[in-house]
Specification:
single chain; 203 residues; binds heme C
Length: 203
């Protein structure tokens, strides 16, 4: 995300020649930076935002530390996202695979270890929740936009998750930032050849 940086520096140059060179250089840079930050191929991203409330969780789980800083794939924890209807929250045993040895002295990890020792899981609260009369399935969407999508790498799965969940990897506690209402779903179906029949989404 260094878009602004180089052009700004270039415009500080006093000599015309230098700044002309700077401009061409910046344009080239923007071109290459643009392709480096290419969008998900074969997809029109859905539009619309939602200002969801902060959800109080039993332990404040930092998505940013895991997904952004340590580059753990979203689907490593949300394993069911690929196969089933429910993406699921990972069991504490999965956390302990790392936290039996990582950051064991931190207060939140001590709290987590207490749950583990009692054989319990923190009671994570739902952040996204569609009404029961709506059908939704992660698998179809992830197959279409990740696994069966030419030119798309699984390492970039988070960019597809972001269509419907926003930039979770920048968040501490997950928050709902996309509307996920009928208009949002239907518009994306129209833009990407998804189904438009009422009965596909409603029983
Ligand atoms: C693949 C390894 C891995 C897994 C699995 C994992 N974590 Fe972490 N977690 C880390 C690393 C690495 C850090 C950063 C540790 C540090 O800063 O010293 C971290 C940090 C944290 C922190 C912040 C600790 C602090 O106060 O700085 C919390 C809370 C946390 N993890 C909770 C969880 C929970 C809950 C799970 C299961 C849902 C989980 N982690 C699963 C690797 C993992
Ligand atoms: C180390 C395990 C771990 C990783 C990696 C991880 N998550 Fe999570 N995720 C959790 C836990 C634990 C929760 C429950 C706490 C919360 O909601 O903040 C959660 C909650 C969520 C929720 C809210 C679920 C609901 O109730 O609606 C979404 C959406 C989500 N994660 C998406 C992602 C995306 C997208 C990525 C990759 C950018 C990702 N997660 C990476 C562990 C993980
Ligand atoms: C096309 C939109 C869309 C995409 C793409 C998407 N999700 Fe979801 N996700 C949803 C909806 C809608 C819900 C709420 C489902 C419900 O309430 O029945 C949800 C719920 C969740 C939940 C809460 C638990 C559950 O399954 O209900 C998690 C965790 C989650 N998503 C993670 C992910 C991850 C990780 C990715 C990327 C690998 C992803 N999602 C991609 C729309 C999407
Ligand atoms: C990013 C764009 C996008 C968004 C957002 C999106 N969908 Fe889809 N959806 C698609 C596409 C494309 C398909 C067709 C996939 C295929 O057939 O390969 C599809 C397929 C489906 C199917 C058909 C599954 C089947 O059995 O054939 C259902 C049901 C569905 N979506 C529901 C929803 C709901 C409900 C929402 C909103 C919460 C939603 N979708 C949001 C793109 C999207
Ligand atoms: C792509 C998926 C999708 C399709 C196709 C779709 N709906 Fe919906 N519909 C939804 C979602 C998601 C909601 C829940 C909205 C919310 O929670 O705000 C909804 C809600 C509704 C509601 C409840 C009232 C409301 O507006 O919230 C009615 C009634 C409804 N839909 C009727 C229809 C009819 C009739 C059609 C066909 C013309 C249709 N839907 C097609 C996804 C869809």
């Amino acid at each position: 995300m260094t878009y602004g940086l180089i052009p700004e520096k270039a415009s500080q140059c006093n000599s015309n020649n230098v700044s002309r060179f700077g401009m061409v250089f910046s344009l080239l840079l923007l071109f290459f930076a643009g392709s480096a930050y290419a969008q998900v191929p074969n997809a029109v991203a859905p539009k619309g935002d939602h200002d969801g409330k902060h959800v109080e969780q039993p332990i404040e789980f930092p998505h940013d530390i895991h997904a952004r800083d340590n580059k753990i794939n979203c689907m490593y924890c949300h394993t069911y996202a690929r196969r089933g209807n429910v993406a699921g929250i990972p069991p504490t045993s999965k956390c302990m695979g790392c936290h039996a040895v990582i950051a064991t002295e931190k207060p939140r990890i001590k709290q987590l270890t207490e749950y583990w020792q009692k054989g319990e899981s923190p009671k994570w609260k739902k952040v996204h929740d569609l009404p029961d009369f709506v059908h939704f399935n992660h698998e179809k969407h992830l197959n279409r936009f990740i696994f069966n999508n030419e030119g798309m790498e699984v390492e970039r799965a988070d960019e597809v998750c972001a269509f419907c969940h926003g930039e979770i990897k920048e968040m501490t506690v997950a928050r709902k930032v996309k509307p996920l209402n009928m208009g949002f779903c239907r518009q994306c179906h129209e833009d990407n050849n998804g189904p438009s029949d009422c009965w596909k989404c409603h029983k």
